[in-house]
Amino acid sequence: MLYGFAGKNISICYQKVRTITRGIFNVACRLTHQKEMIMRYAQIFRYVLDMEASEYQAKFVDPYAEAISKVPGLIRKTWMADFDNGEFASFYLWEDKGSMESFMASSAIATVAAEPFLKDLVITAIPVAEDASAITRGI
User: SUPFAM superfamilies recorded for this chain (predicted)?
Assistant: First the structure.
């Protein structure tokens, strides 16, 4: 799926997890109190930032972190920055696909994507393999 934000094309890859009947990599769904099947989703955002390390907090984190922390359905966001190698990423863990999709359709993500210092944004979305993740304390 390809989203366009302020003249930028952002590629988003929804990958399907194959169920392996033998082993720990079965995709697990949680049952809510209404007995509906809800599957958590994760996203990995990879991007380039055209800024100095000293600008990162003030230009990229401070303007957005508080608002992101209040997005419905977001369990956690992890920020990753390697200024020496120019590699940046964010990891989002969502309660469900609907919450993730609502965030992706929001003006908040469009505002971040439109920042002139943000380049080459690639977003991968994939269901969480909960059984396997529980073993390694990933959830």
Answer: Dimeric alpha+beta barrel
Long-range contacts made by residues 108-111, C-beta under 8 angstroms, separation at least 24?
Answer: 108/64, 108/67, 108/68, 108/71, 109/5, 110/5, 110/6
Encoded amino acid at 110, one letter: A
Q: Is 91 a member of any domain?
A: no
Residue 52 lies in a domain: yes
Q: What is the tens place of the pLDDT at every residue in 92-119?
A: 999 999 999 999 999 989 999 999 999 9
- The sheet with strand 2-5 has its strands ordered as 2-5, 8-14, 118-127, 41-49, 87-94, 74-82
How many domains, the chain?
A: 1
